[in-house]
Each structure stands twice: as C-alpha cells, then as structure tokens.
Design a protein that fits this description.
CATH topology of the largest domain: Four Helix Bundle (Hemerythrin (Met), subunit A)
Strand content: under 5%
Number of helices: 11
Helix content: over 70%
Distance between the termini: 60 Å
Radius of gyration: 24 Å
Number of strands: 2
Shape: elongated
CATH class of the largest domain: Mainly Alpha
CATH architecture of the largest domain: Up-down Bundle
Strand order of the largest sheet: 1-2
Length: about 250
C-alpha cells in the first residue's frame, strides 16, 4: 500500500480567518464599516477570545482591517499597497529561505524598472523631470545613512510618472525586499559617484523622451550594480572562513 500523507488539523484561528476573509470579499462588511464585536464573533464561530483575536490580528497584518483599543475592528479600503502587503510575508519567507530567489528578484527588478523607465520617457512632463533632477541632486548631497533612501526615492519617482498606483506599490515592495535581505550589498561604499552619474544619465534620457536610450541607461545601471553585488558576495564568502579562523585563534 502506498504511503498516505496524514491529515493535519488546522488551527482554529486559521479557520476563523478564512471565514472572515470570505465575508469581507463578499461585501458583507463594506469599506469603513465595522466587523462584529469580539464577543459576537466568539459566539458566532463557537470559539474562544484568543482564537478570534489571532484571526483579527492576521487581518490587521494584511492591512484589511484596523484595530483600535475599545472599538470594533474597521474594514480598510483596498488599494495597491494593501494588495502588495498581502504577498509580502510570502515573499520575505522565500527570500530568507531560498538563495536563488534573490537572483530571481533582481532579474524581476531589471525587467520591471526597464519597463517603468520606458513609460517615464514617454509620459514625463516638465514637472516630472524637475522632480527627478531634484532627486538626483538630493542623492548627490546625501550623507552615508541617507544615500540608499535617496536612491530608492529616485527609482520610485520614475515609477510614479506612470500614474499607475500598482506600479508605485510594486516599486516600493521590491525595494523593501531588497533592502531587508540585501542591505549589505545594496549599500556599496565608494560607488556613490558612479550611481549618481548613472541616475543623471537616466534622467536626461527621460527628459529627452528618448525611450530606447532611457531603457539602455537603466539596463546598464542595474546590470553594473548586479555584477558588483556578485563580486562583493564572492569576496564576503571567501573572507568568512578566514575570519572564523582568526576568531578561534584568539586567546
């Protein structure tokens, strides 16, 4: 007889969460409206208060509801940021447990950002270009702790030119994931001037509405950075055993 996987019991809070999600999706509780009280949910689902609270906290992490002390949970409006937040936990888990996922994320970022810069070159107004140039200058004068933040702001500004809230949310999510799991490589000391020069070139191609030129400049920028990241990763991996050996030798 072939092996059969055992049936695993789910946590009650997961069952409650699924039922609450279904009722929110069905429109039973509209945006801005309140969910039933904890006591009513306890009685309706025949479960204890900890189970209900765990399910509500999961909904809050998904940014589907807000919870204020002494008040019933309130349904939040759905937007691009909300949708992105719902996949964030899964993405973080993949990045933390699967090394190849980081390479896939960088590949996806290249594809995404080249598309964004092509749209920006098509649609940018004089005001958009002025904001991009201001972002480049802010990065040029940024102190070390702020340099990475200014870098992200430049790329988010490019996504914003699209006028598409989903693109802006995806841009933010990609940088959040890169920053959380790749921070030592995203922040490359000594390469700041090169980064600023590349950003300026991208900005000028957008200002000229040169779609192909902007795409080529962005590809060169991200490809150069990715190659540098890989060199630093190999150097760090090679240095780690020697560092451990030195620590062991200390009296």
């Amino acid at each position: 007889m072939n092996a059969i996987d055992p049936i695993r019991r789910r946590k009650l809070s997961h069952e409650v969460l699924d039922r609450l999600l279904a009722r929110i999706r069905d429109g039973e509780w509209t945006e801005g409206g309140h969910l039933p009280s904890e006591r009513m949910l306890m009685e309706g689902f025949a479960v204890g208060r900890p189970v209900v609270r765990e399910a509500l906290q999961a909904l809050e992490r998904m940014k589907l509801i807000s919870i204020a002390h002494g008040e019933r949970a309130r349904v939040l409006p759905l937007n691009a940021q909300t949708v992105t937040a719902q996949v964030a936990d899964i993405a973080r888990h993949l990045l933390a447990t699967s090394p190849q996922t980081m390479e896939q994320l960088k590949e996806a970022r290249l594809f995404f950002e080249v598309g964004m810069v092509r749209l920006a070159a098509e649609r940018a107004t004089k005001a958009d270009v002025a904001r991009l140039r201001a972002a480049v200058e802010a990065q040029r004068s940024a102190s070390d702790p702020m340099f990475l933040q200014r870098d992200m702001e430049f790329h988010r500004a490019i996504a914003a030119i699209s006028g598409n809230a989903i693109y802006v949310a995806l841009s933010q999510a990609i940088f959040d994931w890169l920053g959380q799991f790749h921070v030592s490589l995203v922040r490359i000391h000594g390469a700041e001037n090169v980064t600023v020069a590349e950003h300026l070139k991208i900005c000028e191609r957008i200002a000229a509405h040169d779609v192909d030129g902007a795409a080529a400049a962005m590809t060169a920028h991200l490809t150069r950075a990715s190659k540098l990241y890989r060199r630093l990763e190999r150097s760090a991996a090679a240095a780690a055993p020697a560092a451990r050996t030195r620590r062991k030798r200390k009296p």
